[in-house]
Specification:
This protein has about 270 residues and is an alpha+beta fold. It has 2 domains: about 5-115, no CATH class; about 170-265, no CATH class. Helices cover about 45% and strands about 20% of the residues. The protein has helices at about 25-35, 40-50, 80-85, 90-140, 145-160, 175-185, 195-205, 230-245, and strands at about 5-10, 15, 20-25, 60-65, 70-75, 185, 210-220, 220-230, 250-255, 260-265, 265. The strands form 4 sheets. A 5-stranded antiparallel beta sheet has the order 1-2-3-5-4. The longest helix is centred in the middle third of the chain and has 50 residues, at about 90-140. The mean pLDDT is about 85.
Length: about 270
């Protein structure tokens, strides 16, 4: 047990060996416990009380005294020191034992955190591969590059690798059909925002390509692409309602060619 490094010094100095073992010096433990008997008598008695084994539970050592002479001491493992403190059967002994327990907990927690960090590093290649695949899929789907970047940031952050970059800062507000319905007071007979009615209105509008934004989403473990609209589309929907007298039935053309009649109830705007 050589090359000791102090790792805690709040009550009794606790040292760490080059192999990671936590130890204390017997003389320092004796002093803090306030034992009245001489160190040599006390240490021999306590080692005998707990059946401590030399070179397993403790190790004999020599330290330099202020007089220049070498003084016999002992390097004691923390578990053994806890037992010795408990045998004092007084308030100071209990305090020292609790202190040793807290030191153990602290450094065990540190080891756990290191293992977590190590596991994160090992997991990073798989996260990188996932990001690569999703970027390619979103690009092929025509998703705007800014929103691909935002999705990449989200994936890394959710995986434990936060990216402290605000990717989309100057992008105007985007609307989905539900948001437009809620804002303009377009509801179904059941009282819910009528997103299908808004879709029906958008079908009837002449939109520019850049007014439609495809964005990535992830919900309940499922990833996909959704359509959102710029502010200009919101205004066009609003104008269409005004020009057509807020109709209570709006026809939505389905993908199979059939027509669905959306019955609308107008309420207060959001």
């Amino acid at each position: 047990m050589q090359n000791l490094t102090v790792i805690e010094n709040e009550l009794v100095p606790v040292y760490e060996t080059s192999t990671g073992e936590k130890v204390v010096y017997g003389s320092e433990l004796h002093e803090v416990l306030g034992v009245k008997s001489r160190y040599r008598e006390w240490i021999d008695r306590r080692f005998s009380d707990i059946d401590a084994v030399e070179n397993e539970d403790f190790q004999a050592a020599e330290i330099s005294a202020p007089s220049g002479q070498n003084k016999k001491d002992h390097i004691i493992k923390l578990d053994t020191a806890k037992e010795m403190a408990m045998l004092e059967r007084n308030a100071k002994g209990k305090q020292v034992r609790r202190y040793f327990i807290q030191v153990e907990k602290k450094f065990k927690a540190g080891k756990t955190n290191k293992k977590v960090q190590s596991a994160k590093k090992e997991r990073l290649p798989s996260v990188n591969m996932m990001v690569k695949n999703i970027k390619e899929a979103l690009h092929d789907a025509g998703v705007d590059s800014k929103y691909i970047a935002a999705e990449v940031v989200r994936i890394y952050s959710d995986s434990g690798y936060p990216v402290n970059v605000q990717v989309i800062s100057d992008t105007p507000k985007l609307w989905d059909c539900t948001g437009i319905a809620k804002e303009l007071g377009i509801f179904s007979e059941a009282g819910r925002p009528h997103d299908k009615a808004v879709s029906a209105i958008i079908q009837k509008l002449d939109l520019f390509t850049d007014e439609i934004v495809r964005t990535a989403y992830s919900r309940n473990g499922h990833d996909g692409v959704t359509m959102q609209y710029k502010e200009s589309v919101f205004q066009k929907v609003k104008e269409w309602l005004q020009e057509n007298g807020y109709p209570t039935v709006i026809e939505l053309e389905l993908a199979n060619g059939n027509v669905n009649k959306c019955r609308v109830v107008y309420g207060e705007v959001a």
